[in-house]
Amino acid sequence: MNIKQTISNDELRIKIFKALADQTRLNTIRTLKASWQPIPYSELATTMKCGKSTASYHLKLLSEAGLITLKKVGQAKFVSLNREVFDGVLPGFLKTL
Predict the structure, then answer these.
(1) Could you give all domains of the chain from N- to C-terminal order, each with its CATH number?
(2) By CB count within 10 A, which of 2, 6, 15, 36 is most buried?
(3) What is the per-residue burial (b if ≥16 Cβ within 10 Å, else e) of 13-48?
(4) CA-to-CA distance for 34 and 20, rounded, in angstroms?
C-alpha cells in the first residue's frame, strides 16, 4: 500500500507529525535509522522500555503514518524504517537525528 495514494498530502503530514511528536516514537525512529536491516519486533519493543501493549500502540502509530514497515516471516515480525516516506515528505530529516 502506498500511503501517498490513499490520503491527501496535508493529511499525510498531520499523521507523520503526530507520530513523531512523542519521545518514545522518535527514539524508535533513531534505533531503526541506525540499523540498515529489519529489527525483530520483540527486540525493538524491548528497547522501547515500556510494556508490550504500549510498545504495540507506538509501533501502530508509526506504521499508520507510513514511517515504518512491518514484515511477517513465519511467526516472527520484523520492523524497518520506511526511508521512502522520509525522503519524499521530510527530506533531510533523518540526517538531523
Answers:
(1) 8-87 (1.10.10.10)
(2) 15
(3) eebbeebbeeeebeebbebbeeeeebbebeebbeeb
(4) 17
Name which of 11, 12, 8 is nearest 82 in CA terms.
Answer: 12
> Which residue has 499523521 as its cell numbers?
15
Task: Report whether 72 contacts 59 (CB < 8 A).
Answer: no
CA 73 to chain centre: 18
- Helix 23-34 × helix 52-64 angle, to 10°: 70
Q: What is the residue type of 25?
A: R
At 64-82, the pLDDT tens digits run 999 999 999 999 999 999 9
Residues 37 and 44 sit within 8 Å (Cβ to Cβ): no
- Report if pTM > 0.70: yes
| DSSP collapsed to 3 states, 2-18 | CHHHHCCHHHHHHHHHH
